[in-house]
Amino acid sequence: MMKKLLLVFFLVMSAFTLQAQEIRWMSLEEALAKQKKNPKPIFMEVYTDWYAQCKLFEANTLQHPEVADLINRNYYAVKFNAEGNSVVSYKGNSFNNPNFDPNRKGRNSAHELTTFLKVEGYPSIFILNRSGDVQEKTTGFKTPEELIRFLK
Q: What is the pTM of this model?
C-alpha cells in the first residue's frame, strides 16, 4: 500500500514539474555572451505581437513541457520581436528599428535585424550554431511534435 502511495505521489509531483516548465528566454546579446563561456546553439524565435499564428505557437507549442525541456537543455533561447524597438548587436553590427511607432497598434515597421536575417514570415525559428551563424531556419506555426522533430 505504501509503495502505491509513493508511486502516486511521485507521478503527481512529476506532472506538476512538467507543467511548470517554461523556456528560459534571454536577449540575443546574452545568448551570444553565454556561448563564449559554454558553447551551445541558440534557438531564436522571431515573432510579432499582432499575428495570431505567433500567439498560437507561443501558447500551444512553446508552452509544451517537452518542447520547453528540450530547448532549455540544448539551447540558449532568444525571443525576438520582429517589429520591436530594441537595439541589437550581432555580427559586429548594431541593428534597431528607426521607423518604429510606439503609438501604432498592430503592424509596425520591421526591425533591421529582421531584414538582415531575411525573415520570410512569422513565427520564424532560427538555430544559430556555436559561432553565432545561422545554421537552420523554419517558418510558420509548428505543433510540438513538428518542432521537436525539427530540433532533433
A: 0.84
